[in-house]
Please model this.
Amino acid sequence: MNQKRVYCLYRVSTVGQVEKDDIPRQRQYCREFIERNLEWVLTNELYEKGISGFKVSAKERDAIQEMQRDAVQGKFEILLVYMFDRLGRKDDETPFVVEWFVQNGIEVWSAVEGQQRFDNHVDKLLNYIRYWQASGESVKTSVRTKTRLEQLTQEGCFTGGSVPYGYKLEKRGRINKKNREVCDVVIDEDPRKSSA
Model:
């Protein structure tokens, strides 16, 4: 029996997702998917930790570049991801990256969503719509985050960055969920003294 060689790609956008064990969950799901397909054998796993599939181009992602080189060299036949948005969320790029792999003899699979095929025009349209929708989700997440940070700032909460002139950070012995000390931003009675 000829086994098809499988490359898996696991990606998370933020360090917080790494800390929440998102990559091990993706890896476990993909490995279980491979075990159910007896003619498949896992030959490589690539990891992207803290890489935005919306902000970072495939040309700047080492894992995508490595997989493309290996595809051209015939090192694998199947590219497997947990969900297709792990390949990227750029509606003007990711659909074409997926199509490139298929045109170069690589089957592209999601352990959750199945195989992405290009047998007809509808397949191409569905491929594009998938990443158009993923891009939209990234935009909505960005808007929600920006809005919440603006609300926190209006409430007087310090959301990071440089402390404004005339203020200082004051430790009060509080610890957050990540076991880091939380400081309050308070008025600095003598800002010239603090900046020296």
About this structure: The first strand starts at residue 4 and ends at 12.
